[in-house]
Design a protein that fits this description.
heterotrimer, A: 287 residues, mainly alpha, two-stranded antiparallel sheet, 2 strands, 76% helix, B: 248 residues, four-stranded antiparallel beta sheet, 9 helices, 10 strands
Chain lengths: 287, 248, 331
């Protein structure tokens, strides 16, 4: 019983992390129709920046603020000076550009921080454990889940309940019309892209203490986040929530029940969704 | 037997009903026109007949066969061909290659890994015949994008005919043309579609009344009236709804 | 009609071919290995460009076919006793084509960005199968490829003799380029190019664009498998590196940098990448960083790649040359 509970909680923590990563990806895709390959690289860079900030300040909290801010700035520059310039050439060039960017960030990180894994240790109450139904459990994993719920709710609130959200969603459907209404659409897209970068850095900071900081961390989360986006439906926030949960738990219980095939399980799920509903669980049909 | 039958066609996008219970039949060799103000659902109707969308309910029958859920490319192979309002040709290809794309498809030469369509004299000759019919044989090797606007319209028509269709759907064939170009285009359409059934969408009343045998008036997704050009000209409901401002 | 330009072109090609044939006598063993590698990667890049250049399909999972070809060759030679080498290559290529058919049937249900994303996920799936199924693939240790001689009746070709592998891969690359050139003139090749130009119209002209894409996907996968097979033979060894995301990244960079708009572009790209990487890696461990920056610069400023740059340079010279002439005439 308690073993099942522990694995369920593990699954929740991983689902939370997956949601944090895929929410930024979903935001950028949903709003700008750009699949940001550099997203996972931003996530890794965010984690490394946080690692350095923690080394200097000795605490986790400054890192969780500073790192997303730095990545937000980077996102502004990337959108303004790189992405915008290839937008007119279509999605193949946008994909190529963000892919090249991911590659460069990956290699820069190796160059600046080296290739050895770095441990990121939290202290204070986050490092403690809690006793739940007779099982001790690290608070940090529950913290991840809590943070992801908070971020998800905040995003939903902003997108569906505020004026900014209405404008952003309208710009997706008809950017010319929104532009005609006096909204600066290029600025809006820049802000959305930078927010996506900040979100991924935030996810990277959160992931650091759980998974440690290493150059392969981008690639491993990228694939899982992509699977989340495919299964949930591209650009759908609700789909990202459901798919993160499914894949987080599948990953966790997969390790428990079929240790040899745990990696292949999520791909099987993806293939199943592809066969039955190619546009994803919550996705819109391609015409 | 009617070559095309539309029975109780309904189409809605989201909650919006664009077409409501549309019914009509087109006989062999008949020229049938659909007119109506902008937003009446004409293009949607075309998309449903040609297979771009499926109807929400209702049936499309072609040569007596229900094709409602058959994809566009199979309908094209059965002998249904459509033109596009905004000329939709292969801009970088020569006029001949544009026609050849349809001619070889008609001959079943689509995915062959060894045969070269350009080296098939019968197909090239057939393409040249069609070019000749639309008056473009002199521009055989000119890239489509270098043709004049009216000539591009003629090429569009040629591509539509390249499948040797039994039924042609013409989507505003004279849109954007000058008066002279329009007159020429009408002559050409009449000439090349002599033995083919046609469904035409058009804004220009002169075009409609000089081409059509029978006309349906589509108004906010409903067929308001159907009859010969003379009947339509004299129909009070049509005058009220649509033709009011036009000088007939 | 033979103009002076065409004669010069032919002489140039003839000299290039002759020097390619003479290479094993001219350069050292290490250099020959590098050239063989460039040849095999050229084949790999040509296969990738069939998707990207001909059909506009951007795949981030091409290594799944390269790797499948490489592993299939090693496994076929290990499990089937007395299998002739070239038959093993053929088996590997056909097997990769079959894999391409299955994967293509799944992936081509979506287009554009979702397609790109799914190819990456499938590459990762293939990689994890490679790791997990270690009893067959050797897992992290890889597989040693048992290379039998090729028996020509009168003469035995030893596959550990480097010039042999070089000549074989050169022959395969040459015939592949010839086939690709022919392919663009066939009904199938023309259909693929026309679908890229105007997919909607092709559908209304009776073409099943889905079938066209699937056939192209299978052909491209089979060619990548062939390249992978030769990669295994060249190294006499296969590791997971052949099926990794790095191998996908490599072909993407090579093809794009060479130029996707020209059928010879990918060959330029593969040769450039192989030699430039070799040159850079002697100077710094961060060579991928430089390669990546160069790639981004080309995406932004030279979307036609090396082939595109070469063509605009030729155009520029021709203009200068002819305008100089007309100036003379005026004088």
């Amino acid at each position: 019983m308690s073993e099942t509970l522990v694995f369920f909680l593990h699954g929740l923590a991983y689902a939370g992390l997956l949601f944090l990563v895929s929410s930024g990806l979903t935001l950028v895709f949903g709003m700008m129709n750009v699949l940001n390959f550099a997203h996972a690289a931003f996530y890794m860079l965010g984690a490394y920046v946080a690692f350095s900030v923690m080394q200097h300040s000795g605490s986790f909290w400054p890192a969780i603020v500073v790192s997303p801010m730095i990545l937000f700035t980077l996102g502004v520059f990337v959108e303004k000076f790189l992405l915008r310039r290839v937008h007119a050439r279509g999605h193949v060039y946008e994909l190529l550009l963000t892919f090249g960017l991911a590659y460069v960030i990956q290699e820069s990180v190796k160059f600046l921080w080296g290739t050895a894994p770095q441990a990121m240790t939290v202290n204070g109450f986050l490092a403690d454990t809690i006793t739940l139904f007779g099982a001790t459990y690290p608070i940090y994993r529950l913290f991840i889940f809590g943070v992801s719920v908070a971020v998800g709710s905040l995003m939903a609130l902003v997108l569906y309940k505020t004026r900014i959200g209405i404008i952003v969603r309208a710009a997706v459907d008809d950017s010319e019309m929104v532009e005609a209404l006096g909204i600066n659409v290029p600025f809006l897209f820049m802000a959305v892209y930078a927010t996506g970068a900040a979100l991924s850095a935030f996810a990277g900071v959160i992931a650091g203490p759980l998974l440690s900081v290493f150059p392969g961390m981008a690639e491993s989360i990228l694939i899982d986040a992509f699977v989340v986006v495919v299964v949930g439906g591209m650009g759908s926030l609700g789909g990202a929530v459901l798919a993160s949960f499914l894949i987080g738990e599948l990953q966790s219980f997969g390790v428990l029940w079929f240790p040899k095939f745990s990696m292949v399980l999520i791909y099987l799920m993806m293939a199943l969704v592809l066969i039955l509903k190619p546009e994803g669980l919550f996705g819109e049909k391609q015409s | 037997m009617a070559i095309l039958q539309a029975a109780d066609i309904k189409k809605s996008f989201g909650g919006l009903e664009v077409l409501t219970d549309v019914n009509f039949e087109v006989e062999e060799k008949e020229k049938f026109a659909v007119i109506g103000p902008n937003g009446a659902g004409k293009t949607t109707l075309f998309d449903i007949i040609s297979g771009k969308f499926s109807p929400t309910s209702g049936r499309v029958k072609f040569s007596g066969k229900d094709v409602s859920n058959i994809p566009a490319y199979r309908r094209a192979r059965m002998g249904m061909s459509r033109s596009f309002q905004i000329t939709n040709i292969f801009q970088k290809l020569s006029a001949l290659d544009n026609i050849l794309a349809g001619v070889r498809s008609r001959a079943g030469l689509r995915h062959h890994l060894f045969r070269q369509p350009h080296k098939n004299p019968a197909l090239v000759r057939r393409s040249e015949e069609i070019l000749d019919r639309v008056g473009l044989l002199g521009h055989r090797d000119t890239p489509a994008q270098d043709l004049a606007y009216g000539q591009q319209g003629a090429l569009e028509l040629g591509v539509t005919l390249s499948m040797a269709p039994k039924l042609v759907l013409l989507d505003e064939p004279t849109a954007g043309m000058s008066k002279q170009e329009t007159t020429d285009a009408i002559d050409m359409i009449r000439r090349v579609t002599r033995d083919i059934a046609c469904v035409i969408i058009e804004h220009d009343m002169n075009v409609i009344f000089s081409l059509a045998d029978r006309i349906s008036v589509l108004h906010y997704g409903v067929i308001l009236a159907c009859g010969t050009p003379e009947e339509i000209r004299n129909d009070q409901r049509v005058r009220d709804a649509y033709l009011g401002e036009e000088t007939l | 009609m033979t103009t002076r330009g065409a004669v010069i072109k032919r002489v140039f090609i003839f000299i290039a071919l002759l020097s390619l044939l003479a290479m094993p006598r001219l350069i050292s063993g290490y250099q020959l290995r590098l050239l063989t590698e460039a040849t095999i990667f050229s084949l790999y890049a040509v296969s990738f460009n069939m998707l990207l250049g001909y059909a506009g399909l951007l795949s981030f999972g091409h290594a799944m076919f390269f790797g499948t070809g490489a592993f299939a060759t090693a496994i076929a030679l290990e499990y089937i006793a007395g299998l002739p080498l070239l038959l093993a290559v053929a088996i590997a290529t056909l097997f990769t084509a079959l894999v391409g058919l299955l994967v293509g049937m799944l992936l081509l249900r979506v287009k554009g960005t979702p397609f790109a994303l799914l190819t990456l996920a499938f590459n990762a799936l293939f990689f994890s199968i490679g790791i997990k199924w270690s009893s067959v693939t050797g897992g992290d240790d890889g597989l040693i490829v048992n290379l039998p001689d090729i028996d020509l009746g009168v003469y035995n070709l030893n596959m550990f003799h480097e010039p042999t592998v070089y000549y074989l891969s050169l022959i395969i690359l040459g015939s592949t380029i010839g086939c690709c050139w022919f392919f663009t003139r066939t009904a199938m090749g023309q259909s693929v190019l026309l679908i890229r130009e105007n997919e909607e119209r092709m559908r209304f002209l009776g073409y099943s664009t889905h079938i066209s894409r699937l056939i192209l996907f299978v052909l491209s996968g089979a060619l990548a498998g062939l390249a992978g097979s030769f990669y295994a033979i060249m190294n006499a060894f296969v590791s997971l590196d052949a099926i990794s995301l790095e191998m996908t990244t490599k072909v993407l960079l090579m093809t794009f940098m060479g130029g996707i708009g020209h059928f010879i572009g990918p060959v330029f790209g593969a040769v450039f990448y192989t030699y430039f990487q070799n040159f850079l890696s002697e100077m710094t461990d961060s060579w991928p960083l430089i390669m990546g920056l160069l790639f981004i610069a080309m995406v932004l400023m030279a979307p036609g790649g090396i082939a595109g740059l070469a063509m605009s340079a030729r155009e520029w010279f021709r203009k200068r040359f002819t305008s100089g002439n007309s100036l003379k005439e005026e004088l």
